[in-house]
């Protein structure tokens, strides 16, 4: 099994094949917490990923953006949607893998539920109006993992002018990796150091940036597990880290050196958020199912209360793309089943009949259902 590399990540000849994730990339993905416990990594000796058509398209996009001139690089904003088990979190992992291969800076919020569920420390941001809240422990962990996930930060020096308002003096010519480690050493200084680091990463001449978030619905539900002084639940948009991310997704801030802002929805663990469903439907338009049926976009329910902050972020015309992941085609399903057979997980011969049977049983090649039907189901 060959590795996924810069040269083959957009090669149509590898479409339908499973490629191995290189060891250094695995360490970087582990640092950004891209691997999910519900995925079947533990069944195989080394992690591999299926190069489906959408993956190759993503590799071509990242390669093209990496070759653009610094001042003219695009910012692509994309939301991944699809039914349960269609591979949304895996697509997010694959996009981060290819961003790492191209030397991009990757900042990932691996699970929005961990930010909103109410199990980490929080405190008001001084002089913020309307009130915003920072989560020092979460920011500390984020800063601690950044140098491991992005080794090139060691060779980039801090050049931004420092303010006398900073809680500690910043040494001159410090590397960005050291700056992140400095912020991770004390939760009380994590937020100002995070702001300094982001400002440096967005300065001219820096690599493109990939911003990822999984579990979008948790970041857009009406309330969180945190309580304001008036005893009302804090809105996710009032949490600074999510506020910061949504400014890039909604277009209030841009990535000057280019990059991708990507969010993935979830169907297995997500609250019902009518505002998000309506906004995504308006962005996506009518949907054509695998059966060829056209599903019209949703309309606003006059008896439903919608969150205008969400509607404004995902407003049409902001350049946000909705990518719907559906089932694999039969060639991709065969490539995945052959990989499972070579790994000893399938004892039957992978024939056209077996592929057609399992593809049909899995609802037309839905990856999660295909895995369940082939390697997890025991009669």
| Low-confidence segments | none
Portion of residues in helices?
25-40%
Distance between the termini: 30 Å
Mean pLDDT: 91
Continuous helix count: 13
**Order of helix and strand elements from N to C terminus:** EHEHEHEHEEHHHEHEHEEHEHHH
Brief write-up:
This protein has 379 residues and is of the alpha/beta class. The chain is built from 13 helices and eleven strands.
Question: If you had to describe this structure to a student in words, what would you say it looks like?
Answer:
This protein is an alpha/beta fold. 37% of the residues lie in helices and 12% in strands. It is globular.
Feature tags:
globular; alpha/beta; two-stranded antiparallel sheet; 379 residues
Topology of this protein?
Blueprint: E1 18-20, H1 23-31, E2 48-50, H2 53-66, E3 75-82, H3 88-101, E4 105-109, H4 112-116, E5 123-124, E6 133-134, H5 136-149, H6 176-184, H7 187-201, E7 209-214, H8 240-250, E8 259-264, H9 274-284, E9 287-288, E10 294-295, H10 308-313, E11 320-325, H11 330-342, H12 352-361, H13 367-376
Parallel strand pairs: 3-8, 3-11, 4-7, 7-8
Antiparallel strand pairs: 1-2, 5-6, 9-10
Helix pairs in contact: 1-5, 2-3, 5-6, 5-7, 6-7, 11-12
């Amino acid at each position: 099994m060959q590795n996924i590399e810069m040269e083959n990540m957009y090669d149509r000849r590898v479409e339908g094949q499973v490629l191995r994730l290189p060891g250094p990339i695995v360490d970087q993905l582990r640092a950004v917490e891209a691997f999910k416990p519900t995925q079947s990594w533990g069944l195989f000796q080394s992690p591999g990923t299926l190069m489906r058509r959408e993956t190759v398209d993503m590799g071509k996009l990242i390669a093209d953006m990496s070759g653009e001139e610094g001042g003219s690089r695009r910012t692509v904003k994309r939301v991944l949607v699809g039914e349960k088990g269609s591979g949304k979190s895996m697509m997010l992992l694959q996009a981060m893998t290819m961003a790492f291969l191209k030397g991009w800076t990757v900042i990932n919020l691996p699970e929005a539920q961990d930010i909103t569920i109410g199990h980490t420390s929080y405190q008001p941001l001084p002089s913020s109006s309307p009130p915003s809240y920072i989560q020092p422990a979460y920011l500390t962990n984020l800063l601690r993992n950044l140098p491991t996930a992005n080794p090139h930060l060691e060779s980039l020096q801090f050049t931004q002018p420092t303010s006398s308002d900073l809680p500690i003096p910043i040494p001159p010519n410090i590397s960005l990796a050291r700056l992140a480690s400095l912020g991770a050493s004390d939760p009380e200084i994590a937020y100002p150091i995070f702001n300094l680091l982001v400002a440096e990463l967005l300065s001219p001449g820096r690599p493109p940036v990939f911003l990822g978030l999984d579990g979008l619905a948790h970041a857009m539900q009406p309330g969180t597990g945190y309580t304001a002084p008036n005893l009302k639940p804090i809105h996710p948009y009032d949490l600074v880290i999510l506020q910061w991310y949504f400014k890039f997704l909604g277009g209030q801030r841009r990535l000057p050196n280019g990059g991708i802002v990507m969010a993935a929805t979830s169907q297995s663990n997500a609250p019902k958020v009518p505002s998000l469903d309506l906004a995504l439907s308006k962005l996506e338009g009518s949907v054509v199912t695998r059966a060829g049926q056209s599903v019209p976009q949703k309309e606003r329910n006059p008896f439903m209360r919608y969150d205008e902050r969400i509607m404004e972020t995902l407003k049409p015309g902001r350049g946000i793309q909705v990518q719907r992941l559906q089932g694999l085609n039969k060639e991709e399903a065969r490539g995945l089943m052959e990989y499972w057979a070579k790994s000893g997980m399938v004892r039957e011969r992978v024939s056209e009949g077996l592929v057609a049977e399992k593809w049909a049983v899995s609802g037309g090649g839905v990856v999660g259902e295909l895995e369940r039907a082939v390697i997890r189901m025991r009669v």
